[in-house]
Amino acid sequence: MIEVVKAKYLKGYQINVFFNDGKSGIVDLKNDLWGEVFAPLKDVKKFKNFKLEIDTIAWDNGADFAPEFLYKKLQDDGDELVEIESTDWWKQNKHMVLAGARHKINMTQKELAARSGIRQAVISEYEGGKRPITLKAAIKLAAALNTTPDHLMP
Questions:
Q1: Fewer CB within 10 Å: C terminus or N terminus of the chain?
Q2: What value, to the nearest 5°, has the Cα angle with vertex 70 and ends 6 and 100?
Q3: Backbone phi, then psi, for 140, in 5-degree steps?
Q4: 10: nearest Cα among 70, 42, 50
Q5: 137, 121 contact by CB (below 8 A)
Q6: How far apart, in whole angstroms, are the C-alpha atoms of residue 111 and residue 41?
Q7: Among 146, 100, 104, 150, residue whose Cα is nearest residue 127
Q8: Is residue 150's pLDDT more than 90?
Q9: Considering only CA atoms, which of 105, 94, 89, 103 is closest in space to residue 131?
Q10: Short-list 13, 16, 17, CA closest to 45
Q11: 9-35 per-position pLDDT tens digit
Q12: Following DSSP, what letter does each residue of 39-90 receive, concatenated?
């Protein structure tokens, strides 16, 4: 069963959608906002205020799109679905996930160091891609960041 596990507003009527099978891509819903429920979402201010609800994106007015529709829309728009882990970009930039997870919860490197027991200088090297994150370190960092170690591992 296809489920939306993460979604991020980009611009206009575009949302970057992430699915439970690891695939992701940009969905442009500009031409799909018709009918009584969707018409109010033509106001971009309202459109961008969606939330993740159960297995898809939804809005406070009750509008939502089936995850299967969003998945198919990615394919229909000609976007190639790829496993991000297999891309060169991911291999070169995976280390930025640690900094992103830290910034997401407004934590400094110093605070992460205190919570994880890993020196701040080492965290800086992880975030800069100068040192690979070991499994032992990923476990400590994940606990401090309230995430899973595999999220931080290259």
A1: N
A2: 20
A3: -65, -45
A4: 50
A5: no
A6: 40
A7: 100
A8: no
A9: 94
A10: 13
A11: 999 999 999 988 888 888 999 999 999
A12: GGGGSHHHHT--EEETTEEE-TTS-B--HHHHHHHHHHTTPPP--GGGSHHH
The tokens for 125 are 């090297």
**Token reading at 126:** 């992880």
What whole-number distance in Å separates Cα of residue 96 and Cα of residue 40?
37
Cα–Cα distance measured from residue 29 to residue 65, given in angstroms and rounded to the nearest whole number? 10
Q: Which of 65, 55, 59, 82 is nearest to 28 (CA)?
A: 65
46 within 8 A of 59, measured Cβ to Cβ: yes
d(C-alpha 26, C-alpha 10), whole Å: 9
Tell me, yes or no, if the pTM score tops 0.85: no
- Could you identify the residue written with the tokens 């429920």? 37
